[in-house]
From TrEMBL:
This is [histone H3]-lysine(4) N-trimethyltransferase. InterPro entries: H3K4_H4K5_MeTrfase (IPR050869), SET_dom (IPR001214), SET_dom_sf (IPR046341), TPR-like_helical_dom_sf (IPR011990), Znf_MYND (IPR002893). Residues 6-240 form the SET domain. Residues 51-89 form the MYND-type domain. GO terms for cellular component: nucleus. Keywords: Metal-binding, Methyltransferase, S-adenosyl-L-methionine, Transferase, Zinc, Zinc-finger. The keyword Protease does not apply. Pfam families: SET (PF00856), zf-MYND (PF01753). It is an enzyme of class 2 (transferase). It catalyses: L-lysyl(4)-[histone H3] + 3 S-adenosyl-L-methionine = N(6),N(6),N(6)-trimethyl-L-lysyl(4)-[histone H3] + 3 S-adenosyl-L-homocysteine + 3 H(+). Its EC number is 2.1.1.354. One of its GO terms (molecular function) is histone H3K4 trimethyltransferase activity.
Length: 438
């Protein structure tokens, strides 16, 4: 039986299909609703610092007695996770270092197991059943279909002892549903903790002018207002990074979610000129030079996903990574202003490389160049801006620049109180961090 969420209702959104709207007023920072995941997985690299079951970040976690890989807060968390962990525990022992299913495979395995065991609607399906998630199976191109088929092979390899699989057609649909509707669970610095599926949250449609933000308390998704909302207003979040210009955003939306956004910002492109600011020169760059540099920048962005991935892919040392960043910045800087989003992207990557190298002074230099444009180009209460204040604040404190550090952390806190709620554990820890500096 379908349940309700107070102040929220499902409706048919014109031109968008299903959606959510509010039935009562909400103020900035107010929680619209929270949702437990239908299923979720902790990212393998986070094992050791976060509980596998509740995602709590703490020291002294206890290992699973069998696989020695999964870690838990206590016996209660371990028992709570066993129904899902048992799908993987034996295979992790058997395959050792060769146990490497993708997070999509792990999520699909858990969905299959949960659907078999659970006959009633779960608490994460108050408004939408897991089977009702949009798959866009008819829109999937050959490349994605091949990836899904590879995931199906991996699913059979790692989970055949514990699961009975549905047909290949059903599995292709299920993988498409997970890929279109999965959420990346992130911490306060936007570092990935895991992946999850929240059917009710998946009903929220996209806008590049969002009025809510989705953040996480452990593995629970929380949807909070970042604009005052009146009864009848549709609920919109952003599916993508909003830093980039309209064409880039819509290319990403079409590729990942199979639609083009028609929000106010996409229609007016009001920030595009500022985002694509060109350097002032005696001889201004012409249209061809600008177009050529934008192509170069977009290709570079596709390559620079993260310092670690680049290092792994190209077998580069940190110093060589830094050189790649600087060469790209020098080349783009001949045409683009430092506040141009492609320059900002590369400076953010350079900051990451500096942190990877332990060069805190240089990391601060790049971070400071990024922060002011971020504050202008991102919407209010953006976690991209808050996470940059956090990173810089902690770097300042590490270099004994106490006043700068406290100031940056307080600015992060002002955003996070809206995005996470004032009682979130991250805010409690942050207040302690600031208090210790006084």
């Amino acid at each position: 039986m379908k349940e309700n969420i107070e102040g929220i209702e499902r409706f048919v959104s014109p031109g968008k299909g299903r959606g959510l709207r509010v039935t009562k007023p909400f103020k900035v920072g107010e929680l619209l609703f929270a949702s437990l995941p239908y299923t979720y997985v902790l990212t393998a690299s986070e094992r050791g610092s976060n509980c596998e079951f509740c995602f709590t970040r703490k020291e002294g976690l206890a290992k699973c007695g069998k696989c020695k890989k999964a870690l838990y807060c206590n016996v209660k968390c371990q028992k709570g996770d066993w129904a899902m962990h048992k799908l993987e525990c034996g295979a992790m022992i058997a395959y050792g270092e060769n146990w490497c299913p993708s997070e999509s495979v792990r999520l699909v395995a858990r969905i299959i197991a949960k659907q078999k065991a659970q006959k009633e609607r779960s608490t994460s399906e108050k408004l939408l059943l897991i089977g009702e998630l949009e798959s866009h199976i008819d829109d999937v191109d050959n490349e994605k279909r091949e990836m899904n088929e590879g995931d199906i092979a991996s699913l059979h390899q790692f989970y055949s002892k514990n699961l009975d699989f549905p047909s290949k057609t059903a599995l292709l649909t299920l993988f498409s549903q997970v890929n279109c509707n999965g959420f990346t669970v992130e911490d306060e610095e936007l570092s990935k903790m895991g992946s999850a599926v929240y059917p009710d949250v998946a009903l929220v449609n996209h806008s590049c002018c969002p009025n809510v933000i989705v953040t996480y308390k452990g593995n629970v998704a929380e949807v909070r207002a970042v604009q005052d909302m009146a009864p009848g207003e549709e609920v919109f979040t952003s599916y993508i990074d909003l830093l980039y210009p309209t064409a880039d955003r819509n290319e990403r939306l079409r590729d990942a979610y199979y639609f083009t956004c028609d929000c106010k910002e996409c229609k007016t492109k009001s920030k595009d000129k500022l985002k694509l600011k060109v350097r002032k020169r005696n001889k201004p760059p012409g249209p061809e030079e600008i177009s050529s540099m934008m192509r170069y920048a977009r290709n570079t962005i596709k390559e620079f996903r993260s310092a670690k991935q680049i290092a792994d892919k190209y077998q580069k040392t940190p110093g060589e990574l830094m050189e790649m960043c600087q060469l790209s910045l020098d080349k783009m800087g001949e045409v683009f202003e430092d506040s141009n989003v492609y320059m900002l992207h590369m400076m953010y990557q350079a900051m990451g490389v500096c942190l990877y190298m332990g060069d805190w002074d240089e990391a601060i230099r790049y971070g400071e160049k990024v922060l002011k444009p971020y504050s202008i180009l991102y919407p209010p209460y953006s976690m991209n801006v808050a996470s940059m204040y956090l990173k810089l604040g902690r770097l300042y404190l590490g270099l004994e620049r106490k006043l700068s550090g406290i100031d940056a952390l307080k600015k992060a806190m002002a955003i996070m109180e809206v995005a996470h709620g004032k009682d979130h554990q991250y805010l409690i820890e942050l207040r302690k961090e600031i208090e210790m500096q006084k």
